[in-house]
Amino acid sequence: MSFSQVGDEEGQAATLSPAATPISSYPEPVAAESCGGRSTRSREQPAAPPMGFPGAAVVTSCPTGHPAYSQSLPRDARSAEVARRLVRTALTVWGLGSLAADATLVITELVANAIDHARLPSIRVTVSRPSTNRVRLGVVDRSRALPVLKAASCGDQLRGRGMLIVDSLTEQWGTELYRWGKQVWAELWDGGTE
Fold first, then answer.
1. By residue range, what is the domain housing residue 46?
2. Do 96 and 64 touch, CB atoms closer than 8 A?
3. pLDDT at 30 over 70
């Protein structure tokens, strides 16, 4: 597999797989919902975004906002490692490496949730930077089923606690609903910058 080099304004560089592409702008929110005690936004979008596997693309970064990093992946457990690598790359380029441990665990749980509950063979992972010290991780899939925040005392269940982990490691998380599916997102904040 070949990798392409990207850099930011300060000349830092990181590698991304050729399938990593900048994400497009999102539609404005049209309704609000509650998910796991956290504020969420429901967004309706008329058409589905591309969920295929794009070819090599030029990827650039900027200090905040769009473009961000995004990659379509197979709905397969092996995609969690690719998603973690994408998150680590973005955080390194943005100088937010202190968030890497928590962010890679969060994206692993979001990807695992999509693998378990999505309908089609691909998912899309997004990493954006809404402000200087905040990062937003997201996983887009073609299911409208909302994630469930289960109680910590779920007995001896070995599975089903992923959203508890997401809830404990993030500032906020939620779900954006689309006509064709959803994006589950989570935001982490680095209090040491700015």
1. 4-189
2. no
3. no
